[in-house]
Amino acid sequence: MATQEEIIQNLRKKVEVLMSLYEKAKAERDRLREENKTLHEIVKTKEKEISKFEDKLSKVRLAKMIAATTEDSHEARLKINRIVREIDRCIGLLNK
Length: 96
Fold this sequence. Notes:
The chain is mainly α. The chain has one helix and no strands. The chain has one helix spanning 4-95. The longest helix has 92 residues, at 4-95. The N and C termini lie far apart (136 Å).
């Protein structure tokens, strides 16, 4: 049977091991909290970048729509002018 002194020594060793494990866990927790903070900052930065790019994309799409509409209307006017000239020519031929 173990003496009181051996039991106390055994308990001290176990407490020291527990304290060591506690300190390691505490250090790991602090490291993870710092990493978490850093990652949150990165996410915020990326979200801002995404927002900027979405805004730019929206502007580019709008510009393309306006450019396409302008080109289409210009081309449509040219076609209408050609058709009107052709009709005028046909009317001129019919009047002869």
